[in-house]
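Quick one:
INPUT:
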């Protein structure tokens, strides 16, 4: 038998055999491509299955918090949700993170514990640079390397740039960032809202992916407890404007519960502005930082979440956390807010404290079941993972079995999203 007719030697059959090997990676093929591979490999099941090959993916997280964080830490929380969902779908995922991280992926421990919670650590940079060396040394092990760091890796990924993605989780309006991104303009970047991109010079945007949460993480609350209170959740800082939240609650005549951390950089703001305001308003209760386990009751039992920001918020994870509980959000029109909140459906978008007070009085108009339904439609972890997988597969340097099949079969094979 000629080699090109022998299913043992035909290039599609060879690639298909690698596909079916559970140690290999996965991807979707179009039905015609599956049938062609099946005909050469004599495998009827292969012709009808959609899952054909998995990817090897590196997720590189900041070391300031564990993955997931024990308390506050939006970036690390998203890294955790994405990593666990990719593992659940069958991908071979390696997580570079702090040593106290918890994951179903393979964990590469790049510091003993989360750096923020380690009193012996005075400088975070050495640990991140050590992690970058570990990533560089292992880079050939992966199809895709997904960075959740803003800057430190950029000079080190030139040799494998075309199979990297960097999600920018922070604010991009700082003037010192413009010359950096002009210098590294080819770095493949993902934004977490369209608004986040506005201050940037021309760069290599490869996608925009809104955050997502596991559907069973925060349960739906049809009614707030005891008539509810207003909630503020996040960080005590001037740009988050907890002072506005206190003012709004006082004018609305409702109790306010504040669950937030105070960073060292914001200690003076707490001491001089917020702590005195809390003491002066008996309707305000400061709880401090809360854990993920406490978040569901805190948000779900609230009448509404106040999100009174005064800065270009890149996303605002707490908004969709509240939505998952069915709790409407009153948010100031800054940053990503108009992209996340459907005005009149999942909450109200306002421009002033007076408008916020008026919105508080209208919270009863919001159908909490519709808030939860919008979350399920727009902000689940499955949707987030699907968006990222589509970006991974479009990267020119992604080295998957599907790329081998395209080369060997001399044709383009359509790639689809993992459901």
């Amino acid at each position: 038998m000629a080699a090109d007719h022998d299913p043992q030697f035909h290039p599609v059959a060879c690639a298909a055999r690698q596909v079916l090997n559970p140690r290999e990676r996965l991807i979707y093929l179009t039905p015609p491509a599956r049938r062609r591979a099946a005909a050469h490999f004599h495998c009827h099941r292969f012709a009808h299955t959609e899952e054909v090959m998995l990817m090897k993916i590196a997720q590189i997280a900041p070391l300031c918090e564990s993955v997931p964080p024990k308390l506050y830490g939006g970036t690390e929380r998203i890294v955790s949700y994405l990593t666990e969902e990719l593992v659940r779908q069958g991908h071979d995922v390696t997580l570079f993170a702090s040593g106290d991280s918890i994951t179903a992926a393979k964990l590469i421990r790049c510091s003993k514990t989360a750096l923020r919670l380690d009193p012996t650590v005075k400088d975070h940079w050495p640990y991140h640079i050590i992690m970058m060396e570990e990533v560089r040394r292992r880079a050939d092990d992966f199809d895709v390397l997904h960075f959740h760091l803003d800057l430190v890796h950029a000079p080190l990924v030139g040799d494998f740039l075309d199979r990297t993605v960097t999600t920018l989780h922070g604010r991009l309006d700082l003037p010192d960032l413009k010359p950096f991104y002009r210098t590294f303009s080819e770095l493949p970047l993902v934004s977490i809202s369209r608004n986040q991109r506005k201050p940037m010079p021309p760069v290599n945007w490869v996608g925009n992916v809104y955050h997502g949460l596991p559907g069973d993480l925060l349960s739906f609350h049809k009614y707030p407890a005891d008539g509810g209170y207003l909630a503020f959740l996040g960080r005590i800082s001037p740009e988050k404007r907890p002072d506005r939240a206190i003012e709004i609650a006082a004018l609305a005549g409702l109790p306010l519960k504040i669950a937030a951390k105070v960073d060292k950089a914001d200690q003076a703001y707490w001491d001089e502005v917020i702590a005195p305001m809390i003491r002066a308003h008996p309707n305000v209760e400061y709880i401090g930082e809360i854990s993920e386990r406490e978040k569901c009751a805190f948000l779900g039992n609230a009448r509404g979440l106040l999100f009174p920001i005064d800065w270009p918020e890149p996303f605002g994870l707490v908004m969709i956390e509240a939505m998952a509980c069915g709790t409407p959000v009153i948010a100031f029109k800054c940053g990503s807010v108009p992209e996340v909140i459907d005005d009149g459906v999942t909450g109200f978008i306002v421009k002033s404290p007076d408008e916020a007070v008026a919105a508080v009085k209208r919270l009863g108009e919001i159908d909490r079941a519709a808030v939860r339904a919008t979350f399920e439609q727009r902000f689940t972890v499955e949707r987030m993972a699907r968006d990222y997988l589509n970006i991974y597969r479009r990267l020119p340097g992604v080295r998957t079995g599907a790329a081998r099949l395209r080369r060997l079969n001399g044709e383009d094979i359509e790639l689809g999203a993992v459901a």
